[in-house]
Amino acid sequence: MANYRYWVGILSSFLLFSLIFLAQKGGVFNGAGTANSGETGLLLFVIPGVIASHLSSKKRILCPLLGALYAVPLCFFIRYFWLMPGYSYWQELAYSVSAVFWCAFGAMLYLFMRVAVHALQRFCQRERQ
Questions:
Q1: What is the pLDDT of residues 27-72, one digit of tens each?
Q2: How far is the C-alpha of 105 from the C-alpha of 111, rounded, in Å?
Q3: Is residue 98 a contact partner of residue 41, using CB atoms and an 8 Å limit?
Q4: For this UniProt entry, which segments traverse the membrane (predicted)?
Q5: What is the 3-state secondary structure (H, E, C) of the chain?
Q6: Alpha carbons 125 and 106: distance in angstroms, whole number
Q7: CA dist., res. 17 & res. 70, Å (int)
Q8: Fewer CB near the last or first residue (10 Å), C or N of the chain?
Q9: Whole-number Å distance between alpha carbons of 34 and 41
């Protein structure tokens, strides 16, 4: 059962990461488009990390990270052969490394929230007694 959940975590991270990456680079999530605006769309990559971490039984940080790392070559391949690349290879690589970081950060954020909720529940149980 644990091996099954391990692969579910990797596959969900892979699929969600690919969808968000291609949607952003394909122009689906366009912001205001100003010259000095930051890439706030990178925060969407927290979502695959959180979901994959929740679906994994063990290795809750490794599964989202592996899924994101497996998705990067596929995203580059689709980006360069079907979508027109708008930036240089190095800019795309920097963007993808940032996206992988935010995906792993989402997994760590999920673990932090899980520990915080568990500690709060234990505190409330002690107060009742």
A1: 666 555 555 455 778 899 999 999 999 998 788 889 999 999 999 9
A2: 10
A3: no
A4: 6-23, 61-82, 94-113
A5: CHHHHHHHHHHHHHHHHHHHHHHHHHCCCCCCCCCCCCCHHHHHHHHHHHHHHHHCCCCCCHHHHHHHHHHHHHHHHHHHHCCCCCCCHHHHHHHHHHHHHHHHHHHHHHHHHHHHHHHHHHHHHHHHC
A6: 29
A7: 10
A8: C
A9: 14
* Residue 23 region by backbone torsions, left for phi larger than 0, else alpha for psi between -120 and 50, else beta: alpha
What is the C-alpha to C-alpha distance for residues 69 and 45, in angstroms, rounded to an integer? 13
Closest C-alpha among 9, 17, 18 to residue 53 = 9
Q: Report whether 44 contacts 90 (CB < 8 A).
A: no
Do residues 44 and 24 make contact, with C-beta atoms less than 8 angstroms apart? yes
Q: How far apart are CA 19 and CA 11, in angstroms?
A: 12
Nearest CA to 45 among 25, 21, 74?
21
d(CA 85, CA 34): 19
